[in-house]
Automatic annotation (TrEMBL):
SUPFAM superfamilies: Ribosomal L11/L12e N-terminal domain, Ribosomal protein L11, C-terminal domain. Forms part of the ribosomal stalk which helps the ribosome interact with GTP-bound translation factors. HAMAP family: Ribosomal_uL11. Coiled coil: none annotated. One of its GO terms (molecular function) is large ribosomal subunit rRNA binding. Residues 72-148 form the Large ribosomal subunit protein uL11 C-terminal domain. This is Large ribosomal subunit protein uL11.
Length: 150
């Protein structure tokens, strides 16, 4: 007999950076999920990934207080900023896009780079073909002030 699913939780957690402090700890603790068990399992699964990447994670928790989790590809904005070569800035030491998207261009990438990103993210996107995935990535690029040439 299958376990009774109580709910799902979606979080974006830095690769290898799950710890009991906010936002991960309180989100899991409220639902009765063993925080340290999740943190150890997540960090082990994402240790090979870039530490700057935020990993979308879906945690399914059950009535018996157990859980399973699924990690997805890093966010499209992470791939776009990496392809554009944007340097980390600010308190959190993360790459930033344009402060005024649509008016100020933060960087420029090629259509071939957009295609590469779309192929990498294809299974996580709501698209039927690569052109649809590219359009989603183009929209993300526009929203963070990255211009696409070609």
């Amino acid at each position: 007999m299958a376990k009774k699913v109580i709910g799902q939780l979606k979080l974006q957690i830095p690769a290898g950076g799950a710890n009991p402090s906010p936002p991960v700890g309180p989100a899991l603790g409220q639902r009765g999920i063993n925080i340290m068990e999740f943190c150890k399992a997540f960090n082990a699964k994402t240790q090979e990934m870039d530490k700057q990447a935020k990993i979308p994670t879906i945690i399914t928790y059950y009535a018996d207080k157990s859980f399973t989790f699924e990690i997805k590809q890093p966010t499209a904005s992470f791939f776009l900023k990496q392809a554009a070569g944007l340097k980390p800035v600010g308190k959190r030491n993360r790459p930033k896009g344009s402060e005024a998207p649509g008016r100020v261009v933060a960087a420029t990438i090629t259509a071939a780079q957009v295609r590469q990103i779309a192929e990498a993210k294809m299974k996580d996107l709501n698209a039927n073909d690569i052109e649809g995935a590219m359009n989603i990535i183009l929209g993300s690029a526009k929203s963070i002030g990255i211009e696409v040439k070609g």
